[in-house]
Inverse folding.
């Protein structure tokens, strides 16, 4: 509809497929999973050669704990929840942004996102 072709895979085996080098973007959504050496090597090669890598939260930073190459490629690794679960207040600073339209400041109880 918007000109994107989306491919969804249910295992990490696709990372070993040389065809991922033709993708524009890879968004791995895994938590505490493992990569084989072939998957790790092919994924890092694809990203080094220009395939985009996107992700968010634990689906990126806590995806493959036993893969230092993946962590270096991402630029970090999840370590812990600082301060554990707390109560805090979310301040909407860009209420004029279309994605924030109609959303006002609100209290929240969760891990800290900063």
């Amino acid at each position: 509809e918007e000109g994107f072709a989306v491919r969804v895979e249910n295992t990490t085996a696709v990372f070993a497929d040389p065809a991922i080098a033709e993708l524009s973007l890879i968004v791995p959504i895994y938590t505490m999973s493992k990569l084989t050496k072939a998957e790790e090597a092919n994924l890092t090669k694809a990203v080094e050669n220009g395939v985009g890598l996107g992700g968010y939260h634990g689906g990126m930073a806590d995806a493959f704990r036993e893969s230092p190459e993946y962590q270096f490629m991402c630029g970090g690794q999840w370590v812990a929840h600082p301060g554990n679960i707390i109560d805090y207040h979310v301040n909407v600073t860009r209420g004029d942004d279309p994605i924030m339209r109609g959303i006002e400041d609100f209290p929240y109880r969760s891990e800290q996102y900063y």
Summary: The first helix runs from residue 37 to 48.
